[in-house]
Amino acid sequence: MFHSTWGPGCGIRALHTGLTCGVLLVLLLRDTDLFSQENAWIHPKPLLFFLLVGCSTALYYGVSLMDPGYVLTDCDEKYDPRPANGGQEMTSLNPGAVRMRRCGYCLLKQPMRARHCKSCQRCVRRYDHHCPWISNCVGEKNHRVFILYLALQLMVLLWAFHIAWSGFHAEETWTEWLYANIFLLAAFIVIGIFTMVVSLLLVSHLYLISCNVTTWEFMSHHRISYLKQCDSDTNPFDRGILRNLWSFFCTCGNVVWERIYFRDTLHIV
Fold first, then answer.
1. Residues 131, 137, 230, 252: which is the catalytic one?
2. Active site residue 131
3. pLDDT digits (tens, 9 = 90+) for 211-264
4. Which of 30, 67, 149, 249 is most exposed, with minimal Cβ within 10 Å?
């Protein structure tokens, strides 16, 4: 399921495309390493750079337009931690069945770790955050694509940073230097800012993924009903770094988080 390209957020997507094209144009018109390599048409580096830029832009539109994991139907399912063989079990978190809470906005029952996004006006499974730059939520279905986009975008930005740096040349006076490099300097500043932002985002998300914590849960631990009764240092969804990473990058389909939530809290009497 994808959003319309001309729907909400089309202005942000147009700004992203405009910045990308503008920076590329400046790098092409200036005497940079990329310019010199482009003249040597047998050199593969310019082609690889443009290919990476194209893939990064495609991933941006993909993560911006795709369904982040909307809760589409009102489901009456519940997860009961009691065993099917009739044995008695107790849990320190909840002695009864865990039922989906009903959203006060769209009136759908939310599975665990879902949250209603006021910007998108929809409930999102394993809600992480709403990203203004992609004008979309990051959730269960598009979080992996978002991480892939950040990683590829960082590669492009670091390469573009090196290319822009190679285009600066000395002039006799600062005024002449600024006049000759004003557009390249602007592109260099834009690249530098986005490099820092994307680096911080990628590192923070990889850390949270390794802990199996969403940004929303990390920021609002004390306000989330299924986390309030846990210690601040306890994460009921954590299964170890390797299993967390494997589950995030290699698991397809919806996850029943209630099963993971209760796996260590059930004790047979």
1. 131
2. yes
3. 999 999 999 888 888 887 777 777 889 999 999 999 999 988 888 888 888 765
4. 249
